[in-house]
């Protein structure tokens, strides 16, 4: 992986960690949808991994105390989303709310610096090329959440969107488009602010980037293991 400053650029490590999560979460989601029909247990287990991959994707910023908090949010996200599957049959509304909160909460935390940047840009009337891409990414992120929570359009016409146009399909398309614009915005920012980043005294270390991802991966796998052994407690639909 080459950054604006070449192979030795320390800022390529966070980019590498981010790109890894961008690859992992669509792959995990595809596998979940492919193999979830094998059995009830397989369905839950597949989506445990899907939720873990999504929570890893939320681990996208690396800076001092921000990293431990982001790691903690990732663990909470995986735990809450996996636990929501145990509520699906008896308390479906609470299950849906818990699963939505599991991903909205870490996203909002991770986006605090970006929202602050939007505010400064509005005040100062900035013209940065990456800002428009960040706006597009944010719009698609909120659209993804809205579609997931609202079940539109099949809610308005039940039975007409069972194969094409279902909210879950639109949800995935919006999510991937949001990731695309986010990736474009990040690479644009890195190219435009490279000289400024080189002169800062704070450089991301391997422990802050790939090390943090490794910690999250290990804990997420432990959570999945715990939830998979507790599947016998889930009532059959």
Automatic annotation (TrEMBL):
Recorded family membership: Belongs to the ADIPOR family.
Which GO MF terms are attached to this record?
metal ion binding; signaling receptor activity
- Asked if the Swiss-Prot or TrEMBL record annotates the protein with the keyword Nucleotide-binding, the reply is no
- Name the UniProt record assigns to this protein: Membrane progestin receptor gamma-B
Q: Does the keyword Transmembrane apply?
A: yes
* One CC-aspect GO term: membrane
Q: How does it sit in the membrane?
A: Multi-pass membrane protein
Q: Which organism is it from?
A: Colius striatus (Speckled mousebird)
Where in or outside the cell? Answer: Membrane
């Amino acid at each position: 992986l080459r950054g604006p400053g070449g192979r030795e650029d320390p800022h390529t490590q966070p980019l590498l960690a981010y790109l890894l999560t961008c690859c992992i979460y669509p792959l995990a989601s595809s596998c979940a949808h492919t193999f979830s029909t094998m059995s009830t247990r397989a369905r839950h287990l597949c989506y445990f991994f899907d939720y873990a991959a999504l929570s890893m994707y939320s681990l996208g910023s690396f800076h001092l105390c921000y990293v431990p908090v982001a790691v903690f949010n990732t663990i909470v996200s995986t735990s809450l989303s996996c636990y929501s599957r145990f509520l699906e049959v008896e308390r479906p509304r609470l299950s849906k709310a818990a699963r939505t909160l599991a991903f909205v909460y870490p996203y909002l935390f991770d986006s605090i610096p970006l929202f602050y940047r939007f505010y400064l840009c509005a005040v100062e009337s900035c013209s940065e090329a990456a800002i428009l891409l960040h706006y597009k990414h944010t719009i698609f992120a909120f659209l993804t959440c809205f579609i997931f929570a609202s079940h539109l359009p099949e809610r308005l016409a039940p039975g007409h969107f069972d194969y094409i146009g279902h909210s879950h399909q639109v949800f995935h398309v919006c999510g991937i488009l949001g990731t695309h614009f986010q990736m474009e915005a990040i690479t644009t920012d890195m190219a435009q602010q490279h000289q400024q980043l080189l002169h800062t005294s704070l450089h991301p270390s391997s422990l802050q980037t790939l090390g943090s991802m490794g910690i999250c991966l290990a804990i997420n796998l432990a959570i999945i293991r715990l939830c998979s052994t507790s599947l016998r407690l889930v009532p059959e639909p």
